[in-house]
Design brief:
Layout (H helix, E strand, L loop, with lengths): L9 H14 L4 H6 L3 H16 L5 H15 L2 H14 L2 H9 L8 H15 L6 H9 L4 H23 L6 H6 L2 H6 L11
């Protein structure tokens, strides 16, 4: 990353220990967010508030993040969430979302979310009532449409901070992702070298 790693504090240690407990290693993005661990924790709380009471499935949330990350050119989130989508659907379906291609294993809801996320990332002022109607036709409620859109915006904020300050995807993420996901992520910052 472009910033120096901050000095260890109780808050940074808590952030790093959480990574080790959940991931088995300290993530590169946590070294960046360690400059403001309380903001990182607030992002986590907001994510829980947004998704915890949503009827959007984990698979659908993964579709949103993969489409958002790919459209933005964020390799870090694309690898991390591409792995999650591959587990929820299959590796070929995850690669299709990352590459904006068709795949028979993507549901109508998956496809509608992917298209919507890309439109919101590229130009939110260009969305139309017809775009929203396409989400309704795919079976999304008004609340789900709001939640999906808020989640795209949430992910954009998170990704923008990581990408702008030069955080490279962890080599462990690339090593754990299916080959189809790794081959689909041809954008963004390169994977960090093994340490």
């Amino acid at each position: 990353m472009f910033l120096q790693t901050p000095a260890h504090t109780e808050a940074t240690d808590r952030l790093y220990k959480s990574d080790v407990a959940q991931q088995g290693f300290v993530m590169n993005l946590s070294r960046l967010w360690a400059w403001r661990p309380e903001v990182c924790e607030a992002f986590g709380t907001l994510r829980t508030q947004l998704t915890g009471n949503s009827s959007l499935s984990n698979r659908e949330l993964a579709v949103i993040v993969c489409a958002t990350a790919a459209s933005l050119g964020d390799s870090y989130c694309a690898l991390a969430w591409g792995k999650k989508l591959a587990a929820a659907a299959n590796p070929a379906a995850a690669a299709a979302v990352l590459q904006a291609t068709e795949n028979d294993d993507l549901t109508a809801r998956d496809q509608a979310l992917s298209i919507w996320a890309r439109k919101v990332v590229r130009n939110p002022n260009a969305t139309t009532p017809q775009d929203v109607e396409a989400l309704r036709t795919a079976g999304f409620s008004e609340r789900e449409i709001f939640e999906a859109t808020a989640f795209v915006a949430f992910r954009l904020a998170f990704s923008t901070i990581n990408d702008a300050l030069g955080v490279s995807p962890d080599w462990q993420l690339a090593a754990a992702a299916p080959a189809e996901v790794n081959h689909a992520v041809t954008f963004g910052r390169p994977v960090a070298e093994r340490r």
